[in-house]
Design brief:
Chain lengths: ~260, ~300, ~300
């Protein structure tokens, strides 16, 4: 009986070997999508599906085995790891890139740097006008939705657990934050480094501008690793995919999408 | 008529009063015409806005090619196909159920509490917010039945949503048939079901078709119900099974506006996708309306 | 033979009845799902605290689940939309029903129906890229994603619904009413405003209540236009967060079975009860309205 089960399992592994699902953080989405696309160009038989949904969803999907790879912009919580173990899933963290959370303002804003302390004061609602920081006008505070990984990371790295002011606009994605900041003169927002473009201005935080160097050497405060969790060490198609992601081409794609390569 | 009244009375006060009343009428009617113009303008501005901004992107390649370069180039074929599968699936589930339900309500049900409760159920199902259908689909089809995020889950969720549309349009067309049709059929000895099958359904067909098309149009345009049940941001291969997740036109617009990194390249594609969706949905609705008007004209009874 | 035919008819009738009951089954299913998934939140934090709490910090270390600001957000957008769409819709319907020549009436009615079919995500695109920047510039606001922008977009969205239901209500007033009024010398305008409109009042209120139900349940357009701050400012020109957009934005990123997940189903329960209430009220009024006029006919 056990033997048959094993054979069945092996067979099903073979059948699905050419299919791979990556689910999770919207921050990681550009990397996942671009690498999947390039990987499928090299391996026409492979079928990789990329879904967003957020870090928590990806991890939950890994726990109930509905995804092969969970992309996440935060490490798994101890509770989640415990739950995974209960379900017989052994989550392995693969750090595929580094991400800096850039604090962004409208291009018309006179301010080009901010202290971590003032940043926190803005987001908890203590500083309401740019005048207090040497600029002008009302501050329009823009945040990500509370369920997103970027929000969680920002909450931890910048707010140190303090509660966000309820005056903040809560937008559904990095791109929407970037778009709104570009449209709104008094806005301040935060996005993954990959979302910084010419339409918006990234601020120096405590005198340091987010860049691949400052993030990799740890001087920029708002930085975090980007994870792709797998059940056990990646094998089969997943293994090949990770080999590709960590290869020179793969890490070049990471850089092209605006993240910081790890190798 | 008013002039005769004036002539017979001939009182100057009434005359001046009347001219004031006429002035009020003139102003009133002007306001009505103005609001009509504003309404029509407001509604057309949306279509115009999407058409103008989207027309530049539209090409044969746009609707027939796969997306490339992180969806900043290439076409939206997977989204078009995904929407097609989802709405087709929804109709496959909802159509038989809806038609049979309407037949029962119109041909069999007596006017009692049961009928009233069923009617109330249909009306209220029609009023349920689309996001609530999405939650229902997530809890029941995706999780409880384990269909996962797939065409199947999405279609079933959409099917429940469009069921009231199909029931009420079918019901309407059944109701329009005069009883003499049924009586003539019974008169020659046909059973109730034979009458329905042979007489009622064929005559009500245009109405049923209208309902079906309206249902497809509604299913194709909805985002919230497929948000957690069927839609995916990116899939390289076209779906080959009903257990696959799909891209869909409405979700694609939302995703292009909110996900990805290349805003400048994505917004034009969002407009193009919106234009395709708009043409699809309005085209379907237009077909439904034409069918209804034509069948009304053909009516001989 | 006879018996066989009867059994067959009976079986068919049962199948049909089963299908007819399906809508009720689905409605019941929705209620059951919402309550089984949503009620735990009431147990965990208390019903009053959930409904009347003002802090929404679902993922905080010490989470808060108060949805009052979202109920406020949904209502202010809805009523803003109604203030905008109701007069315009009623006046437009009045023109179509009472004044438009036959050919215009027959052209306008299907066009308005057609416009009701524009997908809400297209309205969202329109709102986010055209209305919000316009509103921002017009009123010199710090940000254009406000309750006002959302109300405008939603108002345009429900305009076809308001217009066509009001038009139906006006058309169902028997012609004798108008003829009697004209015969005693009233002008067309007087007949419209003092006879037809009051006679159709309950039909019009049905239209408005149904539209409120529709508007409260609208998701995508509001998600893309309203800004999403969970805060009560009592101003149309501030960003607000609606119940529907909270569910849409957060459910996909929430872990099944977590307290946040139950809280979102809790939001759905509140939303569902509200739309159900509006629908039932509308049904009640419309039932009476139709009874009255089918009787006079």
């Amino acid at each position: 009986m056990k033997k048959m089960l094993l054979i069945g399992l092996l067979l099903s592994v073979c059948v699905f070997a050419q299919q791979l699902t990556i689910q999770g953080s919207t921050t990681v989405l550009p990397i996942a999508q671009a690498t999947a696309e390039a990987f499928m160009d090299d391996n026409p038989a492979a079928d990789i599906t990329v879904r967003g949904g957020g870090s928590g969803t990806g991890i939950a999907a890994l726990i109930d085995r509905s995804t092969d790879i969970a992309s996440s912009s935060r490490p798994m919580k101890t509770k989640e790891i415990a739950k995974a173990r209960e379900n017989g899933v052994n989550p392995v963290a693969n750090i595929i890139a580094m991400d800096g959370i850039a604090v962004i303002v409208n291009k018309g804003n006179a301010i080009s740097q901010i202290s971590a302390e003032d940043l926190k004061k803005i987001y908890v609602g203590e500083i309401k006008r740019w005048d207090q920081l040497g600029g002008g006008g009302t501050i329009v505070i823009i945040s990500r939705d509370a369920a997103s990984g970027t929000f969680e990371a920002f909450n931890e790295l910048a707010l140190h657990g303090a509660k966000l002011t309820d005056a903040a606009l809560m937008l559904a994605s990095n791109l929407e934050v970037a778009r709104t900041v570009a449209q709104t003169p008094g806005a301040i927002g935060y996005v993954g480094l990959g979302y910084v473009s010419d339409d918006i201005k990234a601020l120096k935080v405590d005198g340091i501008l987010p860049s691949p160097e400052t993030i990799n050497n740890g001087t920029y405060a708002l930085a975090r690793p980007i994870f792709m969790y797998t059940d056990g060490k990646p094998k089969g198609l997943a293994g090949k995919y990770f080999d590709f992601v960590f290869s020179k081409t793969g890490q070049e794609i990471v850089e092209e999408t605006g993240f910081v390569p790890v190798k | 008529m008013n002039t005769t009244y004036e002539e017979t009375c001939g009182l100057p006060e009434i005359k001046s009063n009347l001219s004031r009343r006429r002035l009020v009428q003139k102003i009133g009617i002007t306001i009505l015409v103005l609001s009509l113009i504003i309404s029509v303008f407001l509604l057309f501005i949306i279509i115009l806005f999407v058409a103008i901004r989207g027309a530049g992107v539209l090409s044969w390649e746009f609707i027939s090619a796969m997306p490339r370069k992180a969806m900043t180039q290439g076409g939206i074929l997977p989204a078009i196909l995904g929407t097609f599968y989802l709405s087709l699936g929804a109709v496959v589930f909802a159509l038989p159920l809806g038609i049979l339900a309407a037949i029962y309500l119109n041909e069999y049900a007596a006017d009692n509490i049961l009928l009233r409760v069923i009617r109330m159920g249909i009306n209220n199902l029609a009023g349920v917010p689309s996001i609530v259908f999405g939650l229902f689909g997530l809890a029941v089809f995706v999780k409880f039945f384990g269909f996962g995020v797939s065409i199947l889950s999405g279609s079933l969720t959409l099917a429940i949503m469009i069921l009231p549309v199909i029931i009420s349009t079918t019901l309407e067309s059944l109701r329009a048939l005069p009883d003499s049709f049924r009586e003539a059929s019974y008169g020659i000895g046909a059973s109730k079901w034979q009458t329905i099958k042979g007489i009622i359904l064929p005559t009500a067909l245009p109405g049923i078709l209208t309902g079906t098309i309206l249902g497809i149009g509604r299913a194709a345009g909805e985002t919230a119900p497929i948000l957690f049940t069927a839609a995916t941001f990116f899939s390289r291969k076209l779906p080959s099974s009903i257990m696959h997740q799909v891209q869909a036109l409405p979700y694609h617009i939302y995703a292009l506006m909110t996900e990805g990194t290349h805003l400048k390249a994505q917004v034009p594609i969002a407009y193009g996708t919106a234009l395709v969706l708009l043409m699809l949905v309005l085209g379907l609705d237009l077909i439904a309306i034409v069918i209804r008007i034509r069948s009304r004209k053909k009516k001989l009874w | 033979m006879r018996l066989k035919r009867n059994t067959k008819e009976f079986i068919i009738k049962s199948i049909l009845l089963f299908c007819a009951l399906s809508s009720l089954v689905f409605l019941g299913g929705i209620i059951i799902v919402l309550f089984t998934q949503g009620v735990p939140i009431f147990g965990q934090i208390g019903f009053a605290k959930f409904l009347f709490g003002t802090g929404w910090y679902p993922t905080h270390e010490f989470p808060e689940f108060g949805i009052l600001s979202m109920i406020y957000g949904s209502f202010i957008i809805t009523f803003g939309a109604l203030i905008f769409a109701a007069p315009l819709g009623i006046l437009t319907a009045l023109y179509i029903a009472e004044l438009a020549p036959f050919w215009l009436k027959e052209t306008l009615k299907p066009i308005i129906e057609l416009l009701a079919g524009i997908p809400s995500v297209v309205y969202g695109l329109f709102g986010a890229l055209l209305v919000a920047p316009f509103v921002q510039r017009l009123f010199g606001l710090p940000v254009g994603l406000t309750a006002f922008s959302a109300a405008i977009v939603l108002g345009i969205m429900i305009l076809p619904t308001v217009t066509s239901i009001v038009e139906d209500a006006l058309s169902s007033i028997p012609n004798e009413y108008r003829e009697a009024s004209l015969a005693i010398g009233a002008t067309k305008w007087e007949t419209m405003t003092r006879i037809t409109l009051p006679a159709a009042a309950s039909g019009i209120s049905t239209a408005l209540i149904l539209s409120i139900g529709r508007a409260i349940g609208e998701t995508m357009a509001i998600l893309m236009v309203a800004g999403g701050s969970p805060r009560i400012d009592f101003s149309l020109f501030k960003p607000v967060r609606a119940m529907t957009s909270t569910i849409a934005a957060e459910m996909a990123e929430t872990v099944m079975g977590s307290i946040h997940y139950h809280a979102l189903f809790g939001v759905a329960i509140v939303l569902f009860i509200m739309t159900l209430a509006f629908n039932l009220i509308a049904e009640r009024i419309s039932y009476r309205f139709h009874k009255r006029f089918t009787a006079t006919r």
